[in-house]
Please model this.
Amino acid sequence: MSKNRKPSKGYLAMPQKPTRPIMVKKSQEIISLVSMLDHMVDGREYESLIRLKGVNVNPVEDIRIALREIASIRNRPNVAYVANVVNPKIRASKSIDNTDDLPFSELINSIPITEKHIDIVLVTPGGSGPQVAKFVDKLRPRFDTVAFIIPNVAMSAGTMFVMSGDDIIMNPGSYIGPIDPQVLNKDGVFVPAQSILTLIDEIQRRGQALVGRGMNPDWTDLQILRQMDPKEIGNAMNASKYSIDMVENYLHEYKFRNWTNHSDGRPVTSTEKRETAHRIADLFCDHSVWRNHGRGIPRESAWEVCRLKITHAESIPNLDRAMRRFWALCNWVSENTPMYKMFMSDSYTLFRNENILNQNNGKATNP
Model:
């Protein structure tokens, strides 16, 4: 970006390459660091960056280098869509929403048209299922295979997104989440749709049991039902079905398409793929299984509870280390800048920033 060009409101303008070495004072010595990655210590990636707080650094090129490390290990191009899931002071929307549609399109278009395989490095708290469907519509016709790499969390709608991949790669610190959608209640507050439906089922079971013993249903349960908005219940049912159907179709069409044989050698039928996909989708949407919409599901639980196969990053030489290094940088940026969303590839960089305007003079400034 030239000196005279001002960054657009809402975006963090950062040079593509560091303009000078990072200067860190240690005792009486001044240490010049060419890259934050050079300062990282294996196994203590984040701790080794904390000392850089307050230092005039530009981590954008380092994040790109970290992405290149992952791409080199995987031998395929990648893009990163990362939300600030770290800093609670950020008030801007960190969720997947329709404002992501254009930058995500440009991000995908930054990959050469000759490339037919791609990795999506994803960190998100969740968001809009219909917007995820738009993302998938941009990816799947374009690429033969799509893999998702999760260095931290991909919750809710993010979990729905990763189910559209041929492969899901997680390390020991990665989490996905339940896909039960949230709907607006009559007070204008978002609540998990499945918690509404689970409550109705419990009240129904208790009432039937009491009626079966010749007793009246519990008065408190009846009052709860009277206060519930039928429209809210209908929205909860429709939203849950949408999530389940969406994940079921993604698993059947993409993740299971190369699943040809059972472990005992028997061929896998299309009906078996469909039934397995539905079972997994239903379990990920089941509030009675996870109890909390925000619960993190590690890769072990994804397999033990849902039988969803996850690739362990440690099974690919050096990938776990590269994921840790990438996430340490993103974590540092999330804590030390007003960035709330990042879209990045080897040739594309867009940082959305919550506070780009200097309130003293109204001019756009870098943090």
Summary: Residues 180-295 form one domain. DSSP finds 13 helices and 14 strands in the chain. The chain has two domains: 11-177+297-353, 180-295.
